[in-house]
Design brief:
elongated; five-stranded mixed beta sheet; about 220 residues
């Protein structure tokens, strides 16, 4: 049975209009993006198969072009559309994060970092630079590493902070393992960066670890 034959209240598009996007399942949202299925499968059926294949929506969105296009019915055009949607979401969250005091909109900061780092296959270290009113000046991916570690150099972080004339910073990195708990090396690195930046009067406001669907804050944990 095609989606067109479903009761109107159960069709993903009509359901979204009547009840809002949050009422839809991951498969229903993905089905709206796909628009059509393939022979013998509705868009919802295809969406469910894709989610089973990748395990989560996060992993699906993080798939590279080869992985994505290997799915029957998917191709380069659909992959490009997905990347465009994800980039629009990142930019919208970045604009929200930059619109005011970063500490007064922690949800925007957290959501932006999750969308930026979640699903990455290697560790990435990001620094968000802020002015004296905690408004975002810039965000940069300063270091990339392997599946399990990234080499971060305090000297380079200090140089970028001075370049932006930053008064404060927020750090973030991901754990591809999916475990958000900070390691001993994460704690030692944060302390080393705090000490280095204190010499040039730059405060460290937080350090986030993004892993899977989680996002851990050092400040909230009281370990900063």
């Amino acid at each position: 049975m095609s989606i067109a034959d479903w009761p109107a209240g159960e069709r993903p598009r009509e359901k979204l209009i009547e009840r809002g996007a949050s009422s839809l399942s991951d498969a229903e949202l993905l089905a709206i993006f796909l628009r059509t299925g393939v022979k013998g499968k509705s868009a919802v059926d295809l969406a469910r198969e894709m989610l089973v294949r990748f395990g989560t929506l996060t992993r699906l969105c993080a798939a590279d072009k080869k992985e994505f296009c290997a799915i029957h019915g998917m191709g380069q055009a659909k992959y490009v559309q997905l990347q465009a949607v994800l980039e629009m979401a990142r930019r919208a969250l970045k604009e929200e994060m930059q619109s005011g005091d970063a500490l007064n909109s922690p949800g925007a900061v957290r959501s932006y970092l999750q969308l930026l780092l979640r699903g990455r296959k290697q560790e990435v270290f990001v620094v968000i630079f802020l002015d004296a009113q905690h408004r975002v000046i810039a965000g940069e991916e300063l270091f990339q590493g392997t599946l399990t570690q990234t080499s971060v150099y305090p000297r380079e972080v200090v140089k970028r902070a001075l370049h932006h004339n930053a008064a404060a910073v927020i750090f973030a990195h991901n754990h591809p393992s999916g475990v958000a708990e900070p390691s001993q090396s994460d704690r030692l690195l944060t302390d080393a960066l705090k000490q280095a930046l204190a010499l040039v009067d730059v405060r460290v406001l937080d350090h986030f670890i993004v892993a899977g669907a989680g996002c851990l804050s050092f400040a909230e944990r009281g370990v900063l």
